[in-house]
Design a protein that fits this description.
The complex is a heterodimer of chains A (about 70) and B (about 130). With about 70 residues, chain A is mainly alpha-helical. Chain A contains five helices and two strands; from the N terminus they run βαααααβ. Chain A starts with a strand and ends in a 5-residue tail after the last strand. Chain B is an all-alpha fold. The chains are: A mainly alpha (about 70), B mainly alpha (about 130). Chains A and B meet through α2 and α3 of A and α3 of B.
């Protein structure tokens, strides 16, 4: 599963810390997500998508190979 | 914050215990004693590192733990439990072949488990767990 968090964060002028604060996690979690080392829970995926005013499918891209 | 304070207090107590043990037991400076001491210092250092991380998170007004840190702990615990079984088997195997006292073997077992947990935590933290 890939995601567009880094790109969307830049577009919304948000730092990793800002996004972490908005969704109630540690900055490290955002770092892990952007590096693709962690797949978020449904709730976190939903919260992140909500910050960018997009749907989960727009932020997280599921590959069939996964 | 309460858990962070408990972690600091426990780390301090273990450290003091190690210092008292080192001062009171007439250490011969053998490799076994040095390994025990080094292992203990690594374990206490790890606990202090975790406690400092939590304190820094609180200072930055971040949650001290979130879903990722909880999952890292959970996976590291499961992995270290699995590996520890083999560690104890290994100790049982060598107990017939070396002249260690039973308390030394138990100490090596407990210290080994702590070090295995540290390594499991580092492994999980470094490689992440994308497909789980």
């Amino acid at each position: 599963m890939n995601n567009r968090i880094r790109e969307l964060r830049a577009r919304h002028d948000l730092s990793q810390f800002d996004l972490a604060q908005k969704v109630g996690v540690r900055r490290e979690t955002i770092v892990f997500l952007e590096k693709g080392k962690y797949n978020p829970s449904l709730k976190l995926a939903y919260d992140i998508s909500k910050v960018f005013k997009l749907t989960i499918e727009d932020v997280f891209i599921f590959n069939d190979a996964d | 914050m309460k858990r962070t304070i408990i972690m600091f207090v426990l780390s301090g107590l273990v450290l003091v215990t190690f210092i008292v043990w080192a001062l009171n037991s007439k250490m011969s400076g053998g490799i076994q004693e040095i390994l025990m001491m080094a292992g203990g210092i690594i374990v206490v250092g790890f606990a202090i590192f975790l406690a400092v991380g939590r304190a820094r998170s609180s200072a930055r007004k971040e949650p001290p733990e979130d879903e990722l840190s909880k999952k890292i702990m959970l996976k590291a615990s499961a992995l270290s439990y699995y590996i520890s079984i083999y560690w104890w088997l290994f100790l049982m195997y060598i107990s017939d072949r070396v002249k260690w006292e039973s308390h030394t073997l138990v100490g090596a077992g407990i210290l080994g488990m702590a070090i295995i947990f540290l390594l499991s935590w580092l492994w999980t933290k470094f490689f992440g767990f994308r497909y789980e």
